[in-house]
Amino acid sequence: MRNWHISIEIAITNTKILVSLLFKYRPLTSFSSLQDDVVEDTMVVDIRHHRHFVCRRGQVLRELAEEYGGVAVSFPRTGANSQRVTLKGAKDCVEAAKKRIQEIIEDLVRDFGALKKQ
After folding, report:
1. Mean pLDDT for the chain?
2. Taking a C-beta distance cutoff of 8 angstroms, is the pair 85, 43 a contact?
3. Using H for helix, E for strand and C for coil, what is the string for 47-67?
4. 19 in a domain, yes or no?
5. How far apart are CA 101 and CA 61, in angstroms?
6. Which residues partner with 38 through β-bridges?
7. Could you tell me if 85 and 45 are in contact, meaning their C-beta atoms sit under 8 angstroms apart?
8. Is residue 38 part of a domain?
9. pTM, entire model
10. Which of 8-12, 52-56, 91-95 is predicted most confidently?
11. For the chain, what is the domain count?
12. Contact at 8 Å (CB) between 108 and 51?
């Protein structure tokens, strides 16, 4: 009988999948450093820009989560009259997602300003 050794490398970009796999296959004591890396942060986003992020069934939010390691971005409910947006995930991913959200807002403001001048 032959013994076969197969090596497979998988790149996991979604932190939710990574965490669930780690919890499934490792003892909980090995997660202290992983849990320390998860942060929750907030940023202020003008209410007039909320629609851009949550329209089309949250497509922009899904793209942000996919691009930035599964970071969870939560906007307040419609009519809540709050500008506070919550981000939760790995510290580096949260910071990168905040930066990208700010870039998107700057693009929206610039595009709106160009439309007003026409």
Report:
1. 79
2. yes
3. HHHHHHHHHHHHHHHHHHHHH
4. yes
5. 10
6. 90
7. yes
8. yes
9. 0.67
10. 91-95
11. 1
12. no
Tokens matching residue 97? 């997602």
Please, are residues 107 and 60 in contact by the beta-carbon 8 Å criterion?
A: no
Tokens of 68: 């930035």
Domain assignment present for residue 41? The answer is: yes
Edge-to-edge strand list for the sheet holding 84-90: 38-44, 84-90, 72-74
Q: Domain holding 56: CATH number?
A: 3.30.1370.10
Q: Taking the alpha carbons of 40, 41, 45, 47 in that order, is the dihedral positive or negative?
A: positive
Kindly state whether residue 2 falls inside one of the protein's structural domains.
no
Q: Can you list the positions of beta strands (E) in the chain?
A: 38-44, 72-74, 84-90
Q: What is the dihedral of CA 112, 110, 46, 68, to 10 degrees?
A: 120
